[in-house]
Amino acid sequence: MTAPRAHRAAPDHTHPDHVPLLTALSALADPVRLRLVRELAGSADWDRACGSFDVPVGKAALSHHFATLRAAGLVEQRDAGPKRLNRLRRAEFDARFPGLLDLVLRAEP
Prior knowledge:
Elements: H1 21-29, H2 31-41, E1 48-49, H3 59-71, E2 75-80, E3 83-88, H4 90-96, H5 100-106
Antiparallel strand pairs: 1-3, 2-3
Helix pairs in contact: 1-3, 2-3
Domain HTH arsR-type: 13-108
GO molecular function: DNA binding; DNA-binding transcription factor activity
InterPro entries: ArsR-like_HTH (IPR011991), HTH_ArsR_DNA-bd_dom (IPR001845), WH-like_DNA-bd_sf (IPR036388), WH_DNA-bd_sf (IPR036390)
């Protein structure tokens, strides 16, 4: 008999209105997080599960990167069964930091 799965707590989300500029810049400065943001920018909302990103880090590091992006107001996550789905908070982030995300997404990888 298999043990029941532990229930995951819903992740905390920081609204971009409460994010200092240096926190946003720091979150976007990491190459792995920048790759996650770029992939989310090219995907439909709630279309990408955490495990669907091709990044050179393990699960624990990936969780840390997503937590950093949530704390910077860039990403929102929700659970859908065993998957955690993601969306880029583009409109909210753009309202707080106009043009920053466009500039970062246009930059060479």
